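User: These chains co-purify. Model them together.
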Amino acid sequence: MPQIGDSLPMLRFHQTPSVLCLKSVGIICEGKKIRFGEFEFASSLYFSYSRSFKPKSLDDMSNPLFDLETLKAELAGQNPRAILKAALEYFHNLAVSFSGAEDVVLVDMASRLKPGISVFCLDTGRLHPETYRFIEKVRERYDINLEVLNPAYQELESLVKEKGLFSFHGDGHTECCGIRKVGPLRRRLATLDAWITGQRRDQNPTRLELDEVGLDSAFSTPENVLYKFNPLAKWTSAQVWDYIEAYDVPYNELHRKGFVSIGCEPCTRPILPNQHERSGRWWWEDAAKKECGLHAGNLHKGK
Amino acid sequence: MPQIGDSLPMLRFHQTPSVLCLKSVGIICEGKKIRFGEFEFASSLYFSYSRSFKPKSLDDMSNPLFDLETLKAELAGQNPRAILKAALEYFHNLAVSFSGAEDVVLVDMASRLKPGISVFCLDTGRLHPETYRFIEKVRERYDINLEVLNPAYQELESLVKEKGLFSFHGDGHTECCGIRKVGPLRRRLATLDAWITGQRRDQNPTRLELDEVGLDSAFSTPENVLYKFNPLAKWTSAQVWDYIEAYDVPYNELHRKGFVSIGCEPCTRPILPNQHERSGRWWWEDAAKKECGLHAGNLHKGK
Amino acid sequence: MPQIGDSLPMLRFHQTPSVLCLKSVGIICEGKKIRFGEFEFASSLYFSYSRSFKPKSLDDMSNPLFDLETLKAELAGQNPRAILKAALEYFHNLAVSFSGAEDVVLVDMASRLKPGISVFCLDTGRLHPETYRFIEKVRERYDINLEVLNPAYQELESLVKEKGLFSFHGDGHTECCGIRKVGPLRRRLATLDAWITGQRRDQNPTRLELDEVGLDSAFSTPENVLYKFNPLAKWTSAQVWDYIEAYDVPYNELHRKGFVSIGCEPCTRPILPNQHERSGRWWWEDAAKKECGLHAGNLHKGK
Amino acid sequence: MPQIGDSLPMLRFHQTPSVLCLKSVGIICEGKKIRFGEFEFASSLYFSYSRSFKPKSLDDMSNPLFDLETLKAELAGQNPRAILKAALEYFHNLAVSFSGAEDVVLVDMASRLKPGISVFCLDTGRLHPETYRFIEKVRERYDINLEVLNPAYQELESLVKEKGLFSFHGDGHTECCGIRKVGPLRRRLATLDAWITGQRRDQNPTRLELDEVGLDSAFSTPENVLYKFNPLAKWTSAQVWDYIEAYDVPYNELHRKGFVSIGCEPCTRPILPNQHERSGRWWWEDAAKKECGLHAGNLHKGK
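Assistant: Joint model of the four components:
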């Protein structure tokens, strides 16, 4: 938390037009001026100071430390690298979410921008053997700090005892994803200020309005405001695969077996030529509900 | 069959110099004249009227019995069923070529238009097990007269003795395709007036100018003029797959394993998402040469 | 713990010749008589009273409530069903351990002897997809109370963060098995008086001296004495498979793909004809160490 | 061809009681004497001189040039290498039959004894992709003259046209094997004096009385007497696999997928642990009939 009197070098300034009002930390905006302790700046400057500058709670959202709408506008239509770069500038305490599939391009880009960056993926305990091998390959190839997150056994054992190992076929995937994916994810996100995902608009009808950046309403808590960057939001599958080929990025062997979108083994299947990639996921369910809970926010946007 | 006295409009005249001798239907060729009933025409006219009207040899080609250019123009942009229908009207002695892949839509359409239609496919001896099962499935499902053609052992044994079972990797696929595909095909085509293939423009750079119908310059012989219909020429892969889904047409299981274009097992592989389907065929060779000899004519068109 | 003066119905008598010496609970054996409080019985009777009759701790082992050596002798060479029956008579609080492989014969036998019997298996999070399907099949087929046990995420995440997903290749399988198998197993065994396993002598050089029953020195704790029954100890693989065929017992699909002994996916492989089944497990390690920790006791017997 | 006057060293004598009658080359048998040119021998000697000394026809069989019974007795219980060696001594015009499976040990042994030896295998056109890769591997690894034999298209096309690609399921495998295996084999064997096969007694109930050498009654013709050596007759599967491991002999990848006995793809399947290897072949047929025609002689022996 910057204090009045902190020395200047602790702040990183950017030339942006936003007007900040940071009274709580003794930073006062007056007209076009910002006063920080005894210093005064043109209000056309603004800055990120990672976590410290984030609103402390959702109650404080009326007063974000960076202006989300402005950032959205800035990033709209930018290329993934530019979006990643912005994410890394605005937030220090952030991590890339890697699903073990084509979103590896994010890992490739991010590790070049910031060696040693935090990357996490969710090991649901039901991934394909190929996916585990792929995750390990990525871990070995890139200069990243990879965490593989697992579900809590208590919840898992209780679900399986009651409903068996394939409850999703009868009851839908939400309950199982809730334990195997959302639980561990929520645990990790609670410690972050922002995360970076590989979601794309062309993946699913539920993702048609996906923005490059947003407040993560699904995983922000009263105690922790969470932002979500989607650097690939407007890339097409073709662009992702061009990148993979051009940069010789490793890919999941399953992509050589007809799989496009890849999730858990029992809930993923190869697709036919010209089928939509999402038809390979939870194919027994309605397309409009095909979010696993990681990006559940997408489901409610349309209405 | 035109009869003496048929009114003129039943015949479609074309400006060609061929001399016809159609005595059986009362059409007499005398010198450079044709008499049809009481009418007499310059022999520079010709017409098609199914088999009887086909030129008997390539020497006669300057004078085909139906005007290819007119037919081309008529069929240009027609839907596959219309093209198939025309093929079936113009030729009785024709067969559908089925490769064991998505061109099954042709078999589906053709068997509805003409139950018991001749269909042939080439069993190179190196197809995928899945492809044999698929061919059998098609044989059982449709009312067709299916022939499965095999190569001559003499040529095969001599090639393999000299170069082994994978000579195509070093020497290109032409020699092997020549024995396993082109030989048996040539044998069969020599007995036909026309054949129907599943080629599409979007399959390959070599097929960009593919027409709905053409003289098959590769397989016509001095003794036998051969026409080739490509009813799917202007369909996209997406249209083919829409048809397969809509009509519940059986498909090769390999399409569920990442395969799009399917040929012989050692020369076919699944493709990555967004790769061109032809990258799954003879991937060690140059894209511009990827014709197996069945449609070798495509290779020389561009120049 | 039965007390002198307990009423008779609390004891279940069996006609067996063993002589019990239960001084600590006031049961005295005198020659061929047993005195229990004021009652006196012929020593040809003996009884099980499940947990109550088990020694309360390892300190008490000098005085087990049933005589292990006698039971060993009785069960030596008995068929698996007889051994299972004895296990079920002596212990109420016991469970069958099912590994997702051929030990399904135990589940088949046990569920016939005692419908609703407790069965548990260890879901390490790295099983083959086929194994999950098989476990579910077994769950649906038999009248059993199946628990699927999972590892604790804290230990797992910390191992993987440090050493990745395939640490066993470099460091041996003990550490990984410790977290994924032994941890959850220990947790479950701590609540049991006895467990039933599918171990066989012919599986591994480490199992050559396996008995039908024994004190489980690896998982007994100062607070809980644990017995272990191995009803298949002296069966051969051939007998197991005869049973599977004769009783139409479901089996893991992997057995149709060359797998014999089945464990975790990265640590299991199909074997060649005539290879020893154990060569399909942890093949990069020395045969004499191939126990996963479940039956670690086997490793020290020989010395 | 030995001529009258050839010096003795050209002949190799063996102590056998057979009486030879080699008039055509000037060798006369008189009573118990053999005169060869001006030399005269006790008829208890006999010799092999490769093809020239073979009886010219079945009519001549009463008078074989080497005494089969003696050879049988000599080879009985010999190790495969000794049997191979004898075969190579007695016959120059012989070839090893290689099926693309574990009989590769024969190729390994034979190519060491006689570099450049003739080996043939039958490409039925329905082998597994893995088998073709394996055959090629063997071709590249050993100093052999490998021929891959194919069926005649006329018979194949006619069978398939009438009955489809899986007629063996309904009609039994004999007809299909007849065309795909026996035809090409017969063609090749007609040019040989002897062949060497990998048959073993333990493979099949039909092979229980298999000898190390015999007259091939199935493929001898009035014009050509054919002998058959089975060097592995008395080896067990375990011995074969010990050899493969000890000598680092390449093996068919299918052996890593649960396949033991390997034939055509649609007629071969992996077996379960402890199943007899032959249960993986033509499993819809009676075990006592499981010969493909190559060794049909085995079927009639028992009676």
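Residues 16 and 44 of chain B are 4 Å apart (CA to CA).
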